[in-house]
Amino acid sequence: MEFYKAINPGTDYTINPFKSYASQQYNLVSGSLSNPEEVTLNRAEQFPSNWSALGDLGPVNAVSLLPSYTLFASIQHLYYSSNSIDRIPYAEFDLTDATEFIPSQSVFVVNIAQYAYGERVLPGSFRLDVGGSTYDVVDRETDIDGLGVLYASSSANVLGNIFYKEGIAVIKEDTVSPTAGISPTLGVKITSGSAVTVVFQSQITIYQHRIVCKLSGNELNRSIMNPSTRLTYATSASVDNYGGLIQNLFRSGSLVPYQTSIGLYNAQNDLVAVAKLSTPIKRTKVTDQIFILEFDSIM
């Protein structure tokens, strides 16, 4: 039998949002076709003044097939211009500020898929390592300042920026060193076959739903729609002589309903969730019964 009862959204139904974090680590090999899809690493090269007129898109990244000139132009426009979607964190400061980073010559662009970082990369959690180098590229910011400046670990040298809400990191390329690694002054050197590790924490908002279902003693204690409780009923199992006498066992209280599951419906009467009780619970006629349902969602 089904029984419907409205709940009070103000008191019986509450939603409590809270932030959830998960540690993520992805291991890539430069130039490999079998890298994880969640993180991509591409090289972007500063374009010459006449690059668009010449139709030269620059060297093409071997795996992603992204032209390096157009990638650099996109990064510059999106993040380092007055019309950027996520302005450089220090834009309000003087351009000589110690945390300033302006991409030039060439940079590496780390692109994290949204389903991997969720709502944003947690400030202070990003780290990039190249082949066990002495230095790492790290974000030392806290959730309070959230400047998004990337440093060489154990140094004050700025190597790039990370844009938390888009999962994009822009890191200076080392064009001098012959071998792969990270230099606190020159930047990051990545060659074909270099092992690259990207570590960060993803953030997502979890919504905890709490529903209080209260049944009074006079509710849901007799299955009036069940034809087997009647003295007479049709063989088709439809109720005959509706409102007639109840079978003695049900009338005396020897048999009572048990609660086995609770369904939640929206305003359009669509079933959106079902709670299954671990064991059937006997209905009582003399006291109220309260069932508290809790479940989490990301919407």
Features:
single chain, 299 residues, mainly beta, 11-stranded antiparallel sheet, two-stranded antiparallel sheet, 15 strands, 37% strand, elongated
Structural notes for this entry:
The protein is mainly β and 299 residues long. It folds into two domains: 187 residues, no CATH class; 91 residues, no CATH class. It is built from four helices and 15 strands. The radius of gyration is 31 Å and the shape is elongated.
Short recap of the structure:
The protein is mainly beta and 299 residues long. The two termini are 31 Å apart.
The averaged pLDDT comes out at: 81
Question: What is the overall shape?
Answer: elongated
Q: What structural class do helix, strand and pairing data support? A: mainly beta
Number of helices: 4
Strand percent estimate: 35-45%
Could you describe the largest sheet, including whether it forms a barrel?
Answer: 11 strands, antiparallel
Euclidean distance between termini CA atoms: 31 Å
Q: How many separate domains make up the residues?
A: 2
Q: How large, in whole angstroms, is the Cα Rg? A: 31 Å
Give the % helix. Answer: under 10%
Structure summary, number of beta strands: 15
Q: How are helices and strands ordered from N to C?
A: EEHHEHEEEEEEEEEHEEE
Low-confidence regions: 89-96, 233-243
Topology, please?
Layout: E1 13-29, E2 39-45, H1 51-54, H2 68-79, E3 106-112, H3 114-117, E4 120-121, E5 127-130, E6 137-139, E7 149-152, E8 158-163, E9 168-172, E10 181-183, E11 187-189, E12 195-215, H4 248-252, E13 258-265, E14 271-282, E15 289-297
Antiparallel strand pairs: 1-12, 2-3, 3-9, 4-12, 5-6, 5-12, 6-7, 7-8, 8-9, 10-11, 12-15, 13-14
